[in-house]
Request: fold
Amino acid sequence: MSNTDSLGTDSAGSEQEPAAAVTESPASPSRTISARALVVLVVVAVGVYAVDQIAKYLVVAHLPLNEFVPVLGDLLQFFYVTNSGAAFSIGSAYTWIFSVLALAVLVFIIWFARRIRSIGWAVVFGLLLGGVLGNLTDRLFREPGFGVGHVVDFIKIPLLPAIFNLADTAICAAMVLFLIQTIRGVGLDGRKLARANADVEAPATEVPAADEPVADEPVADTPAADTPAVDAPAAEQATDASATSKDDA
Reply:
């Protein structure tokens, strides 16, 4: 009995080890994708921020203020201006409010980044982070003072009446990619939302183990078809009647 029990214990243990391995295996790819997405987000954000700040430095150093400089004729012009408000110079008297809002967006993106598992969404939030950080740097460290600095704008195209910079371009690109990802139904984990909902709603079916013995169903005892049923009281009465007739004889 001990050998049998030990064999049964060993077999049960050997069956549990692969199950644990299957349960833990999906976790490692998830962590890998999360780390990769985080790296992409940081690289995109740093790239956008660096290009934006270098371009603004060159504009301030070499372009005249409030003068058009043609680059591609009328299709693209540089026009160096400083903007104390938002787009179209809205809210110029409340620059500090835009600084606070930019700080709030920056904190939200950093906090939300740990949920991203998709490279596409990492690019979206990387563009947004780099653009917000680029304009926030202007508001914090440029004239006329900390928190109320003016943003450097210099790009002018005929299709838009506003003058913008590369940080604004990155923010607009992030919004376009956001709409594309949303229309496609791609979640933060990179999967289609419809497929993810189907996986969640699918009922789990239990499959019995291959080595699990199947209990035999009890078989009811049925009388044979050719054997007549005999009533015990009737048989005893017939025996008594035959005995009485012999005594009378």
Notes: Confidence is low (pLDDT under 50) at residues 11-30, 244-249.
